[in-house]
């Protein structure tokens, strides 16, 4: 998602959804009473057309509506919201009339709220972090040449690109004193430095032939933690051309989403494991989680996203306050989508659970 403007002080955020998850994120935070401005089209009958039988021509325009109803259609990459028009071209539309805006990918939207709740801000922050892809490194390697790039939401930055003089045929990775072994070691050191600097969670290793596979095994024998972050893919060539080939597949976005789902799955599995073992350092349900938070015991707070739009305003206010308090105490907060199994399981536990730093007293 591209965040064009974020001004919570004045209640405004402007953004462009780039994938289905972004649209769903907007759906999660919108509620009746919010004001939304976006491009749309509407059939307009001009005065000189009054005698005609047709319903007028469809005209592109930008409208602002106060949301009353909304619906998300994931398969069609479409978010629809209906409400009364509060701003638009005076010569084409009457204020106070109803209109439905259908928001698609790559279309700008401005959202205005009288108050952004902590949970809503957290959703935006999570989407922004996921879509910025600032934690993904792409390495294309072929024979004795390598290209290493850092992928962000707005750019692809080449960190390093170099070749090494490798004589003779490829030698086994264990022969680190060989030319190829030294080349692999140089690339490994470079990747380790970048991972440390940018706290990288995902690495895509790509290239043609056997060199990427051999380098993959080289990493496994020397840095298991780094090895576990790597996704190995085949492309037809190395260098910048190979980099463009990786980007054209939208693989970085896909991997980032899969990483998020896998992370949430590990969290809910840990919750269920601790509950099954009766360790005492896990809790769920509003009252229990709030008690743990008041005692400063929460390590990771988990909330299913159906709690964002619950009709119980008091409960929603309490959860918002908990998110804010947990942030101030430097605890982690993870809002899980009920579109995935982990979020659905959490919802069945009341929508809230927490991994604790220590067991609570009875």
Quickly list its features.
362 residues; alpha+beta; SH3 type barrels; Nucleotidyltransferase, domain 5; 60s Ribosomal Protein L30, Chain: A; seven-stranded antiparallel sheet; five-stranded mixed sheet; 16 strands; 36% helix
What's the story with the biggest beta sheet?
Answer: 7 strands, antiparallel
**Average pLDDT score:** 86
Give the count of structural domains.
3
Task: Identify the CATH class of the largest domain.
Answer: Alpha Beta
**In one word, what is the shape?**
flat
The total count of helices amounts to 10
Helix/strand order, N-terminal first: EEHEEEEEHEEEHEHHEHHEHEHEHE
- State the strand order across the main sheet: 1-2-7-3-4-5-6
The CATH topology annotation of the largest domain reads as Nucleotidyltransferase, domain 5
Low-confidence stretches: none
| CATH homologous superfamily label of the largest domain | eRF1 domain 2
Kindly name the structural category. alpha+beta
């Amino acid at each position: 998602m591209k965040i064009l403007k974020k001004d919570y002080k004045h209640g405004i955020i402007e953004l462009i959804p780039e994938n289905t998850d972004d649209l769903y994120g907007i759906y999660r935070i919108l509620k009746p009473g919010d004001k939304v401005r976006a491009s749309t089209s509407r059939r307009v009958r001009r005065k000189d057309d009054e005698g005609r039988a047709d319903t007028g021509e469809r005209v592109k325009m930008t409208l602002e509506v106060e949301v009353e109803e909304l619906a998300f259609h994931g398969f069609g990459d479409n978010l629809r919201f209906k409400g009364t028009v509060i701003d638009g071209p005076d010569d084409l539309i009457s204020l106070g009339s109803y209109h439905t805006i259908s928001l698609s990918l790559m279309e700008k939207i401005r959202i205005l709220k009288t108050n952004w709740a902590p949970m809503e801000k957290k959703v935006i922050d999570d989407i922004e972090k996921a879509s910025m892809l600032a934690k993904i490194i792409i390495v294309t390697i072929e024979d004795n040449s390598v290209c290493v790039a850092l992928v962000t939401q707005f750019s692809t930055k080449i960190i390093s690109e170099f070749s090494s003089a490798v004589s003779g045929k490829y030698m086994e990775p264990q022969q680190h004193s060989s030319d190829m072994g030294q080349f692999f070691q140089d690339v490994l050191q470079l990747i380790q430095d970048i991972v440390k600097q940018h706290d990288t969670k995902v690495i895509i290793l790509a290239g043609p032939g056997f060199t990427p596979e051999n380098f993959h095994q080289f990493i496994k024998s020397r840095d298991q933690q780094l090895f576990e972050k790597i996704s190995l893919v085949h492309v037809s060539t190395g260098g910048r051309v190979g980099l463009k080939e990786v980007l054209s597949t939208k693989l970085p976005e896909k991997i980032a989403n899969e990483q998020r789902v896998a992370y949430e799955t590990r969290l809910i599995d840990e919750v269920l494991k601790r509950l099954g073992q009766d360790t005492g350092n896990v809790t769920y349900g509003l009252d229990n989680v709030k008690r743990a938070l008041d005692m400063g015991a929460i390590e990771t707070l988990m909330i299913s996203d159906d709690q964002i739009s619950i009709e119980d305003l008091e409960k929603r206010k309490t959860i918002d306050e908990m998110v804010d308090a947990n942030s101030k105490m430097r605890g982690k907060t993870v809002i899980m989508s009920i579109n995935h199994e982990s979020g659905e399981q959490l919802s069945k536990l009341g929508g809230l659970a927490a991994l604790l730093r220590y067991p609570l007293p009875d």
